[in-house]
Structures are given as structure tokens and as C-alpha cells.
């Protein structure tokens, strides 16, 4: 573990998504004590932004306000070429809040007549870190992960759209990757590399 001097030693993770929390914790846990926002609040921030970045900032401010601590939020989603980038920032709400399984069913249905070569997609992640609720200079880092949408679900790991996301170089879905491997390759991992560099963590 690299010892670094950060301006803070604790960070609230501004997410209610168990899958994300696990991944973010694995990526940051050795450097900083990370606390889930559920320790401080139960209600979710309203994701009213028009971009991943705006929504990440909204969520980070909300958690920081409730906890009095610095907060890190992740706003992420899946952008599918054949759907003009949808579901994008609306990925979590794609099937009107009915959850991951319904989102995946709706996506497969929307693409049922789309050929392999037109099934390109990417996961996108925006991380926003605020030092306090009114921080005028949030730290923003982004990452993307290119892939393709499969015709049926494959794999049991991960969460959300992972069973439908083919990682072309490996020929498997992101739900077939062990957590450690997804955490090296994913949109979230890429954004986190940039964030660690910004914070002076190696
Ligand atoms: O807002 P918080 O509380 O963090 O939790 P959330 O699940 O609502 O998160 P988002 O608003 O950022 O929506 C992200 C959507 O994109 C999906 N998603 C994001 N990253 C993913 C990943 O690594 N693998 C699979 N699906 C992912 C996820 O399942 C959601 O449907
Ligand atoms: Mg959300």
C-alpha cells in the first residue's frame, strides 16, 4: 500500500447500487476509508442532469451534504449505437424502474432485428468527487469501455447490463469476467485510474 497524504482520509460513496459500491470499494479501499452513503441517508438524489457528469455531481453533493464528508459519485450507463446512444443516462430507468432484468429484456427486444456488426455499444462512467457539498471545483474523471450487445444473457458476475455486454477482445460477456478482471478493464476502472492520478494515489 502506498502511503499518501490526502486532504481527507474518509470518503462517502454516493451510490445505492450494491454492484457499483463493491467495485468502487475494491478500487479505492486500500487508499481511503470509504463509507457507503446508506450510513447517512436513505433517499436518493434526483438525477435531473442531462449528462453523466451533471448527475454524478448532483449525487456527490447530495451525499456530502448529508454526511458532512467528501463524497464520490459514479454516474454510468450503456450507450448503444443502434439506439442512437440510448439508454445512456437513462440506463437505470430504461424499463421504468423495474430493475436490471427488465432493463436487459427491453434492450434485447429493442435490438432483436439488429445484426452483429451493428450491435456496437459502450459503457460510460463519470466520477465526481466533491470535497464538501458546495465545492465549486468538483474533480471529474471519465472512462469508457467498448463492446457489443449479445443476443442473450451470458454469465453470473457483475450487475446491470453485464450479461449482455460482449468484451470483443476476450469473446466473453463482462458478467463472465471475474471481479478482479472487470475491475482492470471497465469504464469505471478507467475513470478510477484518472481519479487516483488526480489524487496522487498510485
Ligand atoms: O445512482 P446510483 O445510486 O449510483 O445507482 P444506479 O444503479 O441508479 O446508477 P446510475 O444512475 O449511474 O445508473 C447506471 C445504470 O447503468 C448500469 N451500469 C453501470 N455500470 C455498469 C456496469 O459496470 N455493468 C453493468 N451495468 C452497469 C446500471 O446497471 C444502471 O442501470
Ligand atoms: Mg441512479
From TrEMBL:
The lineage of its organism: Bacteria, Pseudomonadati, Pseudomonadota, Gammaproteobacteria, Pseudomonadales. One of its GO terms (molecular function) is ITP diphosphatase activity. Keywords: Hydrolase, Magnesium, Metal-binding, Nucleotide metabolism, Nucleotide-binding. It comes from Halopseudomonas litoralis. SUPFAM superfamilies: ITPase-like. Belongs to the HAM1 NTPase family. One of its GO terms (cellular component) is cytosol. InterPro entries: dITP/XTP_pyrophosphatase (IPR020922), ITPase-like_fam (IPR029001), RdgB/HAM1 (IPR002637). GO terms for biological process: nucleotide metabolic process; purine nucleoside triphosphate catabolic process. The active site is at 75 (proton acceptor). Gene3D superfamilies: 3.90.950.10. Its EC number is 3.6.1.66. Its cofactor is Mg(2+). Pyrophosphatase that catalyzes the hydrolysis of nucleoside triphosphates to their monophosphate derivatives, with a high preference for the non-canonical purine nucleotides XTP (xanthosine triphosphate), dITP (deoxyinosine triphosphate) and ITP. Seems to function as a house-cleaning enzyme that removes non-canonical purine nucleotides from the nucleotide pool, thus preventing their incorporation into DNA/RNA and avoiding chromosomal lesions. It catalyses: XTP + H2O = XMP + diphosphate + H(+); ITP + H2O = IMP + diphosphate + H(+); dITP + H2O = dIMP + diphosphate + H(+). Binds 1 Mg(2+) ion per subunit. Homodimer. Mg(2+) binds at residues 46, 75. Substrate binds at residues 15-20, 76, 159-162, 182, 187-188. This is dITP/XTP pyrophosphatase.
Amino acid at each position: 500500500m502506498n502511503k499518501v497524504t490526502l486532504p481527507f482520509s474518509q470518503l462517502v460513496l454516493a451510490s445505492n447500487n450494491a454492484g457499483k459500491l463493491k467495485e468502487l470499494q475494491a478500487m479505492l479501499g486500500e487508499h481511503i476509508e470509504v463509507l457507503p452513503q446508506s450510513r447517512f441517508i436513505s433517499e436518493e438524489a434526483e438525477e435531473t442532469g442531462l449528462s453523466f457528469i451533471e448527475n454524478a455531481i448532483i449525487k456527490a453533493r447530495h451525499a456530502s451534504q448529508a454526511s458532512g464528508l467528501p463524497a464520490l459519485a459514479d454516474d454510468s450507463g450503456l450507450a448503444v449505437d443502434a439506439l442512437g446512444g440510448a439508454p445512456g443516462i437513462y440506463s437505470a430507468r430504461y424499463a421504468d424502474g423495474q430493475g436490471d432484468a427488465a432493463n436487459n429484456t427491453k434492450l434485447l427486444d429493442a435490438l432483436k432485428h439488429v445484426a452483429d456488426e451493428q450491435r456496437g455499444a459502450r459503457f460510460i462512467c463519470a466520477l465526481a468527487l466533491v470535497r464538501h457539498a458546495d465545492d465549486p471545483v468538483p474533480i471529474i474523471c471519465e472512462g469508457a469501455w467498448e463492446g457489443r450487445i449479445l443476443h442473450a444473457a451470458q454469465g453470473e458476475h457483475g450487475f446491470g447490463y453485464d450479461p449482455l455486454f460482449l468484451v470483443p477482445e476476450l469473446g466473453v460477456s463482462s458478467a463472465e469476467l471475474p471481479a478482479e478482471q472487470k475491475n482492470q478493464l471497465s469504464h469505471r476502472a478507467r475513470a478510477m485510474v484518472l481519479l487516483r492520478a488526480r489524487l496522487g494515489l498510485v
